Amino acid sequence: MIAGARIQVDENKEHPMDFVLWKGAKPGEPSWESPWGPGRPGWHIECTAMSLEYLGEQLDIHGGGQDLVFPHHENEIAQSECYTGAKPFSRYWMHNGLLQLGSDKMSKSLGNLVSVVEALERYSPDAIRLYFLSSHYRSPLAYSDRSLERVRRALIPGNGAGAEVEADTHRVRFAAAMDDDLNTPQAVAALFDLARDINRGRDAGQSVGSGQAALRELGAVLGTDFRGPPGSRGRPRRDSIHRPAGIGAHRTAGRPPVRPGRPDPGRPRRAGREP
């Protein structure tokens, strides 16, 4: 990076690459007292604090969208490693591609969200799950009803299928794909090929058994069991999503009260690193 190449360097910074750790209070915003005056943690500190509190000084895997690589994750790395002295902050980074609607990324700020609840009105959980897995996690994915409908139809042969077929080849393909940077598109292809062979074997009069067991065993790795009704198109809308009892109280209890004039008892805690 070249300081000042795109925007004018802030003269208040000691170094052009410095970023905000503590933001000064603005009218109407929550704030805490600090040695630097009333304010609140910067955006990057929020993630570092949660990571250090719940995961420790070093992470095995840190995920996030590709749009967070810079500056968010870069800054998480800098502040976390400086605070703890432990390097690397995260051993592995997995940055996922963005879900798109047309040419734009799907986001709340753009007002083009399709919620999971809305999608479940039209498609089964298995169809939605396999639709996402049909694209590599690092690749962008364009949401479309046409693509989801194609996955829904492809699921139909797998339901109720289960003939004695050779499943070992599909197992090897599935495992190799998952070992290759979680190559879920190839893993899903192996499942659909297995489902196809199961149905061909069933039509040929072969006995039901190991093929179906293998399909469900491998599908469970991806969170699907292929037990939904054939051609399932989703489920009725629910006005509220079930949450485990007490989760709201737990969240509230974990959030310190905002009281002007009193310091925040918490300390900075943890976040991530780039390869």
TrEMBL record:
Entry keyword Cell inner membrane: no
Bias (Basic and acidic residues): 261-275
Keywords: ATP-binding, Ligase, Metal-binding, Nucleotide-binding, Zinc
The protein, known as: Cysteine--tRNA ligase, cytoplasmic
Domain spans labelled Cysteinyl-tRNA synthetase class Ia DALR: 173-227
Subcellular location, record wording: Cytoplasm
Species the sequence originates in: Geodia barretti
Gene Ontology biological process: cysteinyl-tRNA aminoacylation
Main location: cytoplasm
UniProt keyword rRNA-binding, yes or no: no
Any one GO CC term of the record: cytosol
A Pfam family that the UniProt record links to this protein: DALR_2
MF terms (GO), sorted A to Z: ATP binding; cysteine-tRNA ligase activity; metal ion binding
Highest taxon listed in the record's lineage: Eukaryota
Entry-linked Gene3D superfamilies: Anticodon-binding domain of a subclass of class I aminoacyl-tRNA synthetases, HUPs
Spans annotated as Disordered: 221-275
